[in-house]
TrEMBL record:
This is PIF1-like helicase. One of its GO terms (molecular function) is helicase activity. PANTHER family: ATP-DEPENDENT DNA HELICASE (PTHR10492:SF101), PTHR10492. It comes from the Eukaryota. Residues 15-58 form the DNA helicase Pif1-like 2B domain. The keyword Hydrolase applies. The keyword rRNA-binding does not apply. Keywords: ATP-binding, Helicase, Hydrolase, Nucleotide-binding. It holds the Pfam family Pif1_2B_dom.
Amino acid sequence: MLKVEGDTHNLYQQEFLNSTTQRSIPPHILKVKKGVSLILLRNIDPRYDLCNETRLLCRGFFKNMLDVEILTESYAGKRACLPIIKLKTNMNS
């Protein structure tokens, strides 16, 4: 690896960054397959029952979205697209 003085962008190697874990965030890579059940862990849109603990079924993928089917409550059977959400954590956790 080429080192440039004052370059903090490449301070740590990618393998090291990918191996670090914290209790407050999921693993570095989250693998989701078509047809698997998911549970929403964030309130996205309560009007359409896209809130914490809603059960979903993965129907497909787009570049930055998941195509899901709602399995619970009054919106069962309805489809929704969930965006990829970047996770942030406090340095203290």
